[in-house]
Design goal:
Blueprint lengths: L9 E7 L5 H15 L6 E7 L11 H9 L14 H4 L4 E4 L2 H8 L10 E2 L15 H28 L5
Parallel strand pairs: 1-2, 1-3, 3-4
Helix pairs in contact: 1-5, 2-5
Length: 165
């Protein structure tokens, strides 16, 4: 059970390649920001990967540490594959890069919104999995900034859009 106290009326999926590094961190950061805004009972967040080699893997330990260092928990987040069933009816589907977007275009059906890049400015979030800890930190900082921006945008839209209430 992801949302223990109520069933949110709106859901967000963040998607990357393997659901090990970027999208799990974005999931945790978005949940944290939504909780700070008092919106966590109304908006659910989950993550998935378009090329998951092994379901149920824990997030990258470097990303987990960075999240923990700022008080964000990744507890319970495990890798899973993006498929039409879990994306069905999502309010938002945000991909980390253009290759994820291309893969998602073959997965989503007519009941899902058109996937977009996680960064509303249209910039890709590079996959740092095989890179240095410094590269992971740089991506983490991007994810923090964009998560804050996305939650501000959604909070603003909630004032105007009854779908998200």
């Amino acid at each position: 059970m992801i949302w223990p106290f109520s069933t949110p009326s709106y859901s967000i999926f963040v998607v990357c390649k393997a659901n090990i590094c970027r999208s799990p961190a974005a999931e945790a950061l978005l949940r944290y920001q939504l909780r700070k805004q008092g919106l966590s009972n109304q908006i659910a967040v989950a993550s998935a990967g378009v090329r998951v080699s092994e379901e149920g893997r824990v997030p990258d330990p470097r990303m987990k540490k960075l999240c923990a260092d700022v008080g964000v928990s990744m507890r319970g987040i495990r890798s899973k594959s993006a498929n039409a069933e879990i994306l069905q009816g999502a309010g938002e589907i945000w991909a980390m890069d253009y290759s994820n977007l291309a893969a998602l275009s073959e997965i989503v059906d007519g009941t899902s919104p058109t996937p977009q890049l996680f960064d509303p400015a249209g910039e890709e979030i590079a996959d740092p999995f095989f890179d240095s800890t410094a590269a992971v930190r740089q991506v983490f900082e991007q994810l923090v900034k964009i998560s804050e921006q996305r939650v501000r945008e959604i909070a603003h839209r909630m004032q105007e859009d009854s779908r998200i209430r």
